[in-house]
Structure formats: structure tokens, C-alpha cells
Design a protein that fits this description.
By secondary structure, the chain is mainly alpha-helical. It folds into two domains: 39 residues, no CATH class; 89 residues. It contains four helices and two strands; from the N terminus they run ββαααα. A two-stranded antiparallel ribbon has the order 1-2. A hairpin with a 5-residue loop joins strand 1 and strand 2. Helix 2 runs antiparallel to helix 3, helix 2 packs parallel to helix 4 and helix 3 packs antiparallel against helix 4. The longest helix is centred in the middle third of the chain and has 27 residues. The radius of gyration is 31 Å and the shape is elongated. It starts with a strand and ends with a helix.
Length: 138
């Protein structure tokens, strides 16, 4: 880049090669930080499909537990799972960690781009859907 000297003549005062590289790295870093480049965009793991399945599995878990507890309180049915406790608090203490664990498992599968990531949550939806349907009859 030409710079005027005090004598009125121009000289080519270029930067040293090391300084040019540092300057270019600084400009490149600023561009990366300022502009959202598409190549750096990350795919969203917890998208609408994931949250829909999560909400459905959580809602059916609550519906299944409450329907079963109502049925047990009326004395017209028995719990089909012999390992499940009969107390409402104990049932929630067992079911909530299972649902959270299966949701986390589905999230990890989806993050690793497994094509059947939805299967874990769908299994919960099916199981709780059957439980709710059976208890709803009474």
C-alpha cells in the first residue's frame, strides 16, 4: 500500500508476511463470529417431532397412573403389573424416572442420527395407552 512520505514521494510500505497472516486470521475470526455461516449451523436435535412424542408419553403416563389409581380406589380392578406398587406416590416414583430415561435414550439416539430414535418413546406411548384404555373401561 503506497504511503506518502514527508518529501512528497510515495513508497510501498507493505506488511511483513507474518503480519499479513495474523491480520488475515483476525479478519477471518471476526467474520466467523459476526456472521452466522450455514456451514457452521448445527442441526436441532430436540425438534417438534421429539417434543410431540415426549409430551404424548408424559401425558399418557399421567393418564395411565391416574386411571389405574381411580380404578383401584373404586375396587373394580387390580394392577396388572405385579412389580408395580399400589401407592400413587410410589407409582410416580417408579414411572417418572423410566419416562425420563427413555426420553433421554431417544434424544441420544436422535443425536447420533439413528433412524429409529422414535421407537423408545413410541413403546412408552403404546404401553401407557393400553394401560389407560384398560383402566378407562371401569
Amino acid at each position: 500500500m503506497p504511503i506518502a512520505s514527508t518529501r512528497g514521494e510515495f513508497r510501498n510500505d507493505s506488511l511483513s508476511p507474518g503480519a499479513k497472516e495474523d491480520w488475515m486470521k483476525t479478519v477471518a475470526l471476526l467474520l466467523i463470529l459476526v456472521f452466522p455461516w450455514p456451514c457452521f449451523a448445527k442441526e436441532r436435535v430436540a425438534d417438534g417431532k421429539f417434543w410431540t412424542l415426549t409430551a404424548a408419553s408424559a401425558a399418557l403416563m399421567v393418564a395411565d397412573i391416574e386411571g389405574t389409581q381411580r380404578c383401584l380406589d373404586l375396587g373394580v380392578c387390580l394392577e396388572g403389573n405385579p412389580l408395580m406398587p399400589s401407592s400413587r406416590a410410589k407409582v410416580y416414583a417408579v414411572q417418572v424416572p423410566i419416562t425420563v430415561g427413555m426420553t433421554y435414550f431417544a434424544y441420544r439416539l436422535k443425536k447420533s442420527k439413528c433412524p429409529v430414535w422414535w421407537l423408545a418413546q413410541t413403546a412408552l406411548i403404546g404401553a401407557h395407552g393400553i394401560g389407560f384404555t384398560v383402566s378407562f373401561r371401569f
